Amino acid sequence: MRRIDARSLRGLAHPLRMNILEALELDGPATSTTLSARLGENTGTISWHLRLLAEHGYIEEDVERGTKRERWWRIPGRTVLDPSEFRDDPETSGALDVYLRHLVERYFDRVRTYVDQNWPGEWQQAAALSDWRDLRLTPAQLTALNEEIAEVIERYTTVEADGTNAERVIVQLQSFPRPSSPADQPDREDAEPRGQAGTGRS
What's the whole-model pTM score? Predict the structure, then answer.
């Protein structure tokens, strides 16, 4: 797992580069041609952004698949971002805002796609669109909660699929503070999200 630093954050904070990274996360290694068709961008533009992602260590060339005419790209491992490291840095606050806002849009789009696909009843029963709104926690308790949930999810990443009806599953988690009343709303400059947001896990 590699932590995102200020330079690599600025290299990632672009909607198309984040879309490219997500496509590689969800569907595995791909070429610029494949990504171009999937994302609706010309191959030259995709290739340029792929090189930038590689320069910052988010992706690497899959030499086992590649040929002289075609380069395949893959994600080498996990990356993790801690927004609290950048919220007070004027040089990275803009990139952080682009990254986090696009990340939230991606989460929303994934859920909307699932709803629009009208899965069979057994999958609709198994899936969950839930929230819990009556917790009162300290930052330390919220950190502990997130870590415990992550440990449970991590166990399932190594579980063998049981049966023939297994599908790839996305688990999303958003946990964040909410002011007790409108009067407690923090100023915009102090309201940047804290905690972790990951990419490249996936």
Answer: 0.75
